Amino acid sequence: MGRQRRHTGGGLAVGAAVAGLMALVTGCSGGGAAASDDPRAADPAGTVRRLADSLVRAGSSEARTSMEMASGGTRVTITGRGAYDYARRLGRFEVVLPQDPADGGRHKPPVTEVMAGGDLYMKNRGAGVPADKWVHVETATLSDGNLVTGGATDPLVAAELLRGARRVTYAGRTRLDGVDVRHYRGVADLARAAKGAAPDHGRALRVAAAKGFSKGGVRFDAYVDEGGLPRRIRHRFAVADADVASTTSLYGFGVRVGVRLPAERNIYAGKIAER
To answer: What is the pTM of this model?
Structure first.
């Protein structure tokens, strides 16, 4: 497949994206809890920093995403569901936008997103893009590294971000969706994470760090099962004038994932209207 035309700014800048979506509606290891009772608590920072590698070894999974944005007393939630091939760094998600008050409270059509390493493709994005066309964005051109702009955080990027984990503490055991997990919390440093991430994702994280996204630090909670796989990752970002919480839940490891990149003829080449 040939090189695609790329949109690198304008209506997809993170500030405009957040405003548009709202308008649509090192590492220090803490002492941790019960450290003497659980050997996993001895190295909480190391545990979460290795989660991206654990996903690649697992090969694939299904995923649910949720992004909550709060600004000026208004709160909206964007949800997504899909599957991801971690070895090939390819994922496909259906992202549901909030209800539109101007349209009788009905939901907008889902946005289909294909995540491919350093690239993001979106269909049904709206903002003047024909319904049968895809928008193609290089995530390294986004000031948030596509942690927020697409409305669904790339699951592998969510784990790659934890390579920059610091001030990590072990918060004890709990149970999620019938699975026993260990809970860790801390702060992820974008610049540090970029150094250890895969090349495409590392470039995007370096840009986000350089542009001061979320002031360089991202609070997180990570829930890890007995096999060392993340079952839930929650990040909290400071974006423009909004507080954003992104949650990625992972399950169905080893599922077969079939993802095709859009054909070049189906990539939108026109101007994207700002929301």
So the answer is: 0.83
